[in-house]
Each structure stands twice: as C-alpha cells, then as structure tokens.
Amino acid sequence: MELRSSPGCSDWLLHAAENPRPIRVAGTGNVALPERWRLLAPYRSRLIGLAVSRGARLDAEDVAQEALLRAAVSQVLDETRPWPYLAAIVTNLARDRYRRSTRDLTLHQHRGLVARDSSVEDDVAHRDDVVSALKALVDMVPMETVVMAWRRYADGATWHEVGREFGRSGSAVESQVRRAMLRVRRAHAHRRHR
Fold this sequence. Notes:
Radius of gyration: 30 Å
Largest sheet: none
Helix content: 55-70%
Oligomer: single chain
Shape: elongated
Number of helices: 9
C-alpha cells in the first residue's frame, strides 16, 4: 500500500512508515511505528466517516488523526483487530469535542458565568449596589447581621473570617446573612409589586 495516497499524512509519518529501522517512542514498549502505520493507515477514511457520523463534522480529520496517533503508540492495541480500538477512540474524541463545544456555547450565551477582568468603574458600580442593598438590610435585620454582611460583601472577607470575628462557624454566619437577605429580597419584591 502506498501511504502517499492518504491525504493528510505528515512527512514524519511517511518517514516512519518507509524507514527500514524500527522507530521506538518513549513509553510505548516494543511498538515499531512503521509496522503500525502500515496496519492503521487504511482505516483513515473510515475513521473520518465515523467521526462525521458521531458529530465531529468540522473536526473529523483531526479526530481521525488523533485516533491513529494514539493507536500507533498504544501498547494495548490488538493488531489482529484494530478497528474496535480505533472506533472507541474516535467515539470518545468526538464525544469530548461535543461536550467542549456545548460548554463553550453555554458559556458564550451566559457570559455572567465566565470570570472576567473588571474595570474600576465596574468595581465601583458593584460596590454601590452592595452598599444600597446593605442600607436596605439595615432597616430590617439586627445590626450584628448587617455588620456580618458588610464584612463579607463590602470588605471582601471570607465567611470563615467573618465567623471567626463573631465567634461562630463560617457556615452559621453565612446562613444568618443569607436568611436576612432573603427577607430583604422578599420585602423588596413585595413593595415593587404594589
């Protein structure tokens, strides 16, 4: 079989397939690449078709090439039946690419989920929002809870640090502040709907 007829084979793969001395890759044991490439190269177009059918349409060639590379250096490949191993690799790679693209799409649609650098103006606006929410909280809850919330949200202390200051656990302080904020939100929503 002539490997040059397979589009996409890189020069080093051709060299590996045509080189008479075995090429050993670190960590692959006694796998000789030229023999492996002669064995695996005929499956390339079939792997591309499988990748397309598994949803990796735009990345089908990359997925197929990755599967061939992994199989070529694998110590567990059954050389009498390489197709099941190759098909499993392509299926897993296509699934992984689908998950990544779905995650990226979700993060793109919900940009608030992605951490981003904020400008000074954003920080000031956020702090102003926190201060106005805390002022509303002052009128409805005990002063101790207001101070806890202020330390956490305005000063940026962790729940554990705030809890240590008040002689309680961080989760107890967090629960107390969240319950108070829930009361404030409910009261605010009730006033808004009047």
